[in-house]
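Quick log. Single chain, no ligands specified.
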Amino acid sequence: MLAIEWIISFLFLGSFVGFVAGLLGVGGGGIMVPVLTLIFLHQGVDANSVVHLALGTSMASIIFTSISSLRAHQSHNTINWHIVKFMSLGVILGTFMGTFLAAKSSSLYLAIFFTLFMAFVAIKLLLKKQGDNHNVQISNQQLLTSGGGIGAISALVSIGGGSLTVPYLTSKGIDIKKAIGTSAAIGLPISITGTFGYLVNGWGNSLDYEYTLGFIYLPAVFLISITSFFTAPYGAKLAQHLPINILKKVFALLLLSLSFKMLLSII
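-> predicted structure:
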């Protein structure tokens, strides 16, 4: 039986992740992975498998956020389905291969990679440097290749890919609103494939931890998904009245602190 303090922790985490996702238009992996790692460590999960479990659980939780986000953007016709079709082919292969690489890596190496990548994302948010958004023709081959790279990195750090897909598309001259909407649609195959990959790769590992399927902890997925579903709209509503640029900088600092805390805990 799951202790009440952990139930409350997962519900609160889902509430916070959903609110921030709605407020800033980001995925929740950057927050979920370090927090889940700390929770699982306190619950006694083996340090050699704890980051794998956090990555898989986070990826599974992102599925429901992706579905909600995709529906919202589709209602505003901000999804370029041609780009989604070709990038998704690369994304599926890259994401699945990324989960195999993650499964073979130690928790320490994964924690280091996660921390460095989140530092990169945070620095981009802090500097907020805009690229030259001139129109560039994107070939189907480029979409497949870039999708593979984005999928692989997304699997390794358990994100929906928005922090990579949106800058890539805007650098090719895609309107920012369509880039965000298209990225939201691409996030669904990333999260589904990543979840399947972490399930398959974790299947033969004995975590000695109840209620897990592969590297996915089912109670956390269920509780996080419930509360994030309800709090995301409130974040999106508040976003209309607050200075988003300042909030993104605060979010960047939060990512940095959580990531380094996770790394120190693993070390």
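The chain has one domain: 4-266.
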